[in-house]
Write a structure and sequence with these properties.
Layout lengths: L8 E7 L3 E8 L3 E9 L5 H16 L6 E8 L1 H7 L6 E6 L11 H5 L4 E4 L15 H13 L2 E6 L7 H14 L3 E3 L9 H32 L5 E4 L5 E3 H6 L7 H14 L4 E6 L4 E7 L2 E2 L7 E2 L2 E2 L8 E3 L5 E5 L8 E7 L1 E2 H8 L1 H12 L10 E4 L12 H9 L5 E2 H4 L6 H9 L3 E5 L2 H7 L8 H12 L13 H27 L4 H5 L2 H8 L15 E4 L3 H12 L3 E2 L7 H7 L3 E13 L2 E6 L2 E5 L2 H23 L5 E13 L2 E15 L6
Parallel strand pairs: 1-4, 4-9, 5-6, 5-7, 7-8, 11-23, 19-22, 23-24
Antiparallel strand pairs: 1-2, 2-3, 9-10, 11-12, 12-13, 12-16, 14-15, 17-18, 20-21, 20-22, 25-26, 25-29, 26-27, 28-29
């Protein structure tokens, strides 16, 4: 064991969809120890404790030796990809019904309620009349139906007073969590701000449970160190700030993995592909830094206003649902985007009952459409079950924490749609055959129950193609086809990202006949070969199983670092705190320069004075925010972008945008 008495030790934790990772690290010794445990969604502290206690026992360090705890998570990303989250109510101030049709807002809302309130402001921050009578009347009923509220007001980024007034009203009446759009973004585009606010409100309970579970475990373990969380841009913030703005943790795990990949390999230019249980996240390292997406992160098909790494997230992982393209005579295997609990993992956790049901189904004369599928409760809080329909509530009551085979649980195939709705609400897990099971059949993995995986492969091989013949002759054949499908799709997502970075249409170009011919190695007269100008870094616990084959398919060097299985947890402890605030200066009338900086609104007679005042306000705001975010040594940089025009040889001021950024290492326990 390394001598750790002379240097601060940091604990990194990553809570993913399947595994929770932990790593001990110091600047002097690097990675001291690492461990993994299964993520326990019903009580996240169990998985966190399992991983951390292993490395503490291995190194025999004292809890007091740990000076900082930093955590990344894929929970928010996975929730958006899988369409999960609490039921919320959206309050739109100054908007109309037509605005729901913009920025995919109506799609994101689904069946969640929306209340329209007169009010809002103009581009200069001048108010319209606010009328909350209808909202006040609706609040008592809404409080019983939802887990939180999202508020978006017209031009709230210029003046947030109406959002603040409505926020205070809702909190006083309901006591539920409330998210305001001006707290999340200073950018224009109301419907997209509303979308971002809706997603944030849905995630609050999930991230709150994660932080509470982590803090509870640390306290019980005697680890009294600051807890930090990785944001989607790779920066660190305090757990308290992450609880309030959980949307900023989308792509937290992938962002941490990029920081970890750069730290482990020293490569300045690479394509980084991180495969987890639910998603594959691909980004490009260029000149040692990941590029941030200026348009906001896109996750689960929704374009948010969250500044995050320019990461492309695909619903593809080791635990992806395996399904068939039923429209073809010889159906191909499709993967994802939904995550299933692998049968091998289910049997490892729940023992003989799972194996007994799988064996019963294998021995049956005919294959059933629900064979090889189980359902069990997630163990989520009771408030997630609010607003269920009668059929959903009745089925949910019959599902327990012990897995039940769907062929015995459901009275008809049509009830499978009800199960899917419960899955989307985060109330139920479905288990079935996955690529992880295929790897157990092929001997590429052995960490769970291989017998259950084989039963699952037998059942899948018995499914019928378009001509009524079995899909495959042996379980090994269906396992090979599943493994090959994951390699092929993994190669495609790497190419999609590379093409998009080259300003091409990534999906369309990757799907073109020439690229598909190159991936197939089709040896025709006009052969096609692909070339990538940088190596691929494969990250994730299963990367050694898949990514050498991905590199071979793409004809590229593939680097799988030694600590690839804990890249996210490592990236969490080597990052920095970084926060930004923004101010706008406009000219609503001749001789009036209006400064709009968060909740500060002030008119000054001269441009220079207004810009100087804006910078002073920003420096104080960003300094305060840096302290909240967890650093005592934030270095502040202010950028100015002043727009002006020349009319008849005279300069005309249009607008000024000032951005203040503070960055520094997180504070540690002493």
């Amino acid at each position: 064991m390394a001598d750790t008495t002379e240097t601060a030790i940091f604990l990194g934790i990553d809570t993913g969809g399947t595994y929770t990772d932990a790593v001990l690290w110091s600047e002097r010794d690097g990675v001291i120890a690492k461990a993994k445990a299964l993520t326990t969604r019903h009580d996240l502290s169990v998985g966190i404790a399992g991983a951390v206690e292993r490395i503490v026992e291995e190194t025999a360090i004292r809890p007091a030796d740990i000076r900082l705890v930093s955590m990344s998570t894929t929970l928010a990303t996975n929730a958006l990809v899988e369409g999960q989250g609490g039921r919320i109510a959206l309050v739109m101030i100054g908007f109309s019904q037509a605005d729901l049709e913009k920025a995919d807002l109506k799609t994101a809302l689904g069946s969640d309620p929306v209340v329209f309130v007169p009010g809002g402001h103009d581009v200069y921050g001048r108010p319209q009349l606010l009328d909350t009578a209808a909202l006040s009347e609706a609040l008592p009923n809404l409080a019983r139906e939802v887990t939180g509220f999202a508020i978006c007001a017209y031009f709230a980024v210029r003046n947030p007073e109406h959002e603040i007034a409505v926020r205070d009203l809702i909190r006083n009446v309901t006591g539920l969590p409330v998210t305001c759009s001006h707290e999340l973004s200073a950018k224009l585009n109301g419907p997209r701000r509303a979308l971002t606010t809706v997603l944030n409100a849905r995630l609050i309970a999930m991230i709150d449970r994660l932080v509470a579970a982590t803090e509870g475990f640390l306290d019980r373990s005697g680890i009294h160190a600051p807890l930090m969380v990785v944001r989607g841009d790779g920066a660190l913030v305090t757990a308290a700030l992450a609880r309030h703005r959980p949307i900023e943790t989308i792509l937290s795990g992938p962002a941490a993995s990029l920081v970890g990949a750069r730290h482990m390999t020293g490569l300045d230019n690479a394509i980084v592909s991180d495969i987890g249980g639910t998603t594959t996240d691909v980004a490009v390292l260029d000149k040692g830094r990941p590029r941030l997406d200026p348009n906001g992160a896109t996750v689960g098909g929704f374009r948010t206003m969250v500044e995050a790494v320019a990461m492309r997230t695909f619903g593809l992982g080791g635990d992806s649902e395996v399904s068939l393209d039923d429209n073809a005579m010889a159906p191909s295997i499709k993967l994802g985007p939904r995550r299933l609990v692998p049968l091998s993992l289910l049997a490892a956790n729940h023992g003989e009952s799972v194996l007994a049901h799988l064996e019963r189904q294998v021995k049956a004369a005919n294959v059933g459409r629900l064979d090889g599928r189980f359902a069990l409760r997630t163990g989520g809080p009771a408030q997630l079950a609010s607003g269920l329909s009668k059929s959903e509530a009745e089925l949910y009551e019959r599902i327990t924490s012990e897995p039940q085979p769907l062929d015995r649980l459901l009275a008809s195939i049509s009830q499978a749609a009800t199960v899917n709705r419960l899955v989307a609400r985060g109330l139920v897990h479905v288990s079935g055959f996955t690529p992880s099971d295929a790897c157990h059949v092929l001997g590429l993995q052995d960490n769970w129950n291989a017998e259950a995986a084989r039963y699952g492969a037998i059942l899948y091989a018995r499914r019928k193609d378009g001509a009524g013949r079995p899909l495959c002759d042996t379980p090994e054949e269906v396992a090979h086809r599943t493994y090959d499908a994951l390699i092929r799709r993994s190669s495609e997502v790497v190419l999609e990202t590379a093409f998009a970075e080259d300003e091409l249409d990534g999906p369309e170009t990757a799907a073109s006949p020439l690229v598909q011919r190159a991936l197939s190695g089709d040896g025709r007269i006009a052969g096609v070969k692909l070339a990538i100008d940088r190596p691929i870094i494969g990250l994730g616990a299963s990367a050694p199983v898949y990514y050498p084959a991905v590199g071979a398919m793409l004809g590229a060097e593939c680097v799988v670092p030694t600590d690839t299985d804990v890249a996210n947890a490592l990236g969490a402890v080597v990052g920095q705190v970084r926060v930004s605030v923004e101010a706008h200066v406009s000219q609503p009338a001749e001789g009036v320069f209006r400064v709009m900086a968060g909740e500060v609104l002030k008119d000054l007679p001269f441009e220079e004075d207004a810009i100087a005042f804006a910078e002073t306000v920003l420096r104080q705001q960003v300094s305060d925010l840096a302290l909240q975010a967890g650093t005592d040594e934030g270095q502040i940089v202010v950028s100015r972008n002043i727009s002006a025009a020349t009319v008849e040889d005279q300069r005309k001021f249009i607008e000024a945008v000032l951005i203040a950024t503070a960055s520094g290492r997180p504070r540690i326990a002493h």
